[in-house]
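Input chain follows. Return structure tokens only.
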Amino acid sequence: MKRILALACVGIFYLSSASALYLVTPTVNLNKPGVLEKLRDSHPAHYEKIGKILEGLTQRPFDDVPRWITANFDARDAHFSPVLMTSYPPQREIVFVFDRTRYRARVKLTPTGARLTMYE
């Protein structure tokens, strides 16, 4: 009985500490005006990675984008929406997590790269 109780305590401790590692702060919407400027000052490493992601987004197959972001930029939970918004130029949603911060953006896909769609 003591052994079962000890194992249960260890299991609960393990699960609580493991889940704490994956807590994510509220989502940062990169499409809002001024957010990139604040990010450049507060998290320069994140700002640099986001710039590189936007530069390289259209240079690889869209199905490969989440794996590419995860492998090359040490991100988690990367997602590149398979839904193409019918606009000109076409747009897609991208989401990824750096450290404990989730970033979300709607990007315009152009032949020269991806651009953020700015809105209030």
